[in-house]
Amino acid sequence: METEFEKSKPAGKSEAPITVARRVPEVATPMDADGLERVGHSSTGITTYSARSSIRNPLQLIRNIFADFWLGRELAWRLFLRNIRGLYRQTLLGLFWAFLPPIANTAIWIFLRQANVFSMGDTQVDGTVYILTGMILWQAFIDAFQMPLGMINKNRNLISKLNFPRESLLLVGIGEVLFDLMIRLLLLIPAFLIFQVPVHTSILYAPIAILGLVLIGASLGLLLMPIGSLYQDVGRFIAMVLPFWMIITPIIYVPLTTFPGSLLNWLNPASPLLLLARDWLLLGTTNHFAIGLGFAAAAIPISLIALVVYRVSIPVLIERMTA
Amino acid sequence: MNLSRSSSSDLILDVDHVWKVYCRNLKRAMWYGLKDLGREMVGGGRDRSHHNLRSGEFFAISDASFQVRRGECLAMIGPNGAGKSTMLKMINGLIKPDSGSIKISGKIGALIELGTGFNPILSGRENIYINAAVLGIRKREVDGLMEKIVEFAELGHVINDPIKTYSTGMRVRLGFSIAANLRPELLLMDEVLAVGDVGFRMKCFAHLNELVKQGVSIVLVTHAVGMLQRVATRSVVFGQGKIVHDGDLETGCTIYEEMLGASDRVRAKKKEEAGRIGEIGSVEICNEAMEPQAEFETGETVRLRIQINTRETIKDARLVVALCSPVHGVLSSVSSPYQGIQFDVDPPGRVITLEIPKIPLLIGAYHFNISLFGPEKVDFYHRSSLRGVFRIVGPPTNADGYGINGITKLQHSWNING
Lengths: 323, 418
Hints:
The complex is a heterodimer of chains A (323) and B (418). Chain A is mainly alpha-helical. Chain A folds into two domains: 2-56, no CATH class; 73-322, no CATH class. Chain A has 14 helices and one strand. Chain B is globular and about 80 Å long. In chain B, 41% of the residues are buried. Strand 1 of chain A pairs antiparallel with strand 4 of chain B, so a sheet runs across the interface.
């Protein structure tokens, strides 16, 4: 059979075929089983679909994932622009909706604090800026966490009917999370001015911690996506748990340093990088450098595993979407 | 397999012993989905061919094999739920086979559903870029094709307006135009032939024929069998997940029409009551020499031997015989009194033969519905449908306007002198 295919490459076509961002197939040809790289992205390559799980060849799988990220970049950019443009054309208030949640949340907590309902501890900077920054970072984490399931649900029609690099949806999702985050971070400019917060050079490192925070949120969301897509219970559970999760994350108070409260900083995946990012943005010094970077480093292998899970699960999920 | 028409060096698609399992129960399907996920994650194979089914599962596709070569247009036909669209989805790589393999050489362009991914509030032009990107085409290549796409879709005057202001037909035209102008090597189409107005449909057929001539292979799924002759060169017929025919289009369409009839037969039988006095027994279709035969050519003599069984004497019996096509319904109905035929049926019964000389039917599947009456309108004994199934297998018809076509051969003459 293979030899027949070898011969079947287009012979002297009058019109050059359009180079196409063809998806890298899930499963390699039998030749791959012997470790031979044969599946290419060119329009003359042979695609094989079989029951074999692509996870059996993990290196190939990861290579294919990154190849599809690259192939899907233009599609991702188009879809990103489509969504952003759509957002503006359809709403009166547009960007305002991006600003609203952190402002509203901050306002509520500031009001409660002034009524002495709770104590924040020594925040070192004005409490309003402290809470606002925390809220913006928390919102980014949560957006990233909920993004994978949201993307799959929003694009069910597209996914179940067309074959395109699925990774491009993640690029779009991350793009949207970062876009919203950037707009919200603009809120900090007037806040810094009004509450006279000094600017430290450490603000330059903050993006590292912020990206780590988004990455870990997206990876965890990605790991939950397959089950969440099959069973709606997962989505409901997350919606129920989110307020509690926010409370145990040091957003409206300084992190607890005494046992057992300090345990929360270690167990809560949102905490360390959120604290590190906030310290770098507001204080210039931090006690969370090691743990924060540790979590950021851990985010890399976790995200790789999550990407593998995402890719392997999509065909199974499509089957059940249409079943 | 009938592959003699093309050489073996042009294989584009090779479907090799493919099986696919589905489950209709929602709760179970979800649970199996979860288990399948787990199995995929640990790299477990899932060879699920033959009798390896879990409770509630069935084979949507069982042991299907076929091939498509360069420049071939294959029609996948069959009743609803026969597995055509599932097969198309596997070829497109959306879902995985549970056993067997599918190999594709070259670039796939899919039209699984026209206009999937259109954003209603963006303009037609913006949507062309998005749709092309989904199909894997880069912007600069779309730029070069933009004029062609817009012109083919006949939407030049509205291409900068939001898609939500388009009619359904306009959207379909745009979707087809995008996918068909991107020059894939293998084009997959699911039920897209029956859309749009007649003029545009004809344009689509012409375009598809042009693509086939240029060496593009097409696999299409449709129920509009009548239109297939304009574009398809071969057919694969699916019945309950199995391939029941792989070969020429005419035979495929005939088999499909018979299958549609067969499901009616099951329903009709259930309705029938037991304990009749007189009934239509065995029915045999024969040639002029009274030998059983099921395939005829246009113009041959067809004889229908009808066995009537009875428990009591039926005085002045009446037979009504309707010649039918599964697609077109009753074509003609004749009765024994029309030709002054009078007869009684004594127990246990008798045989009556109906002769149709020079049958004027063209290629297709046909059958008879036979009813037994007494002399009065209300003296009904039995009606038996889908009896004496036969096929007209030749001579060939021509849908392009160079021969004769339709279901009957019309006696006619031309006079070019007015």
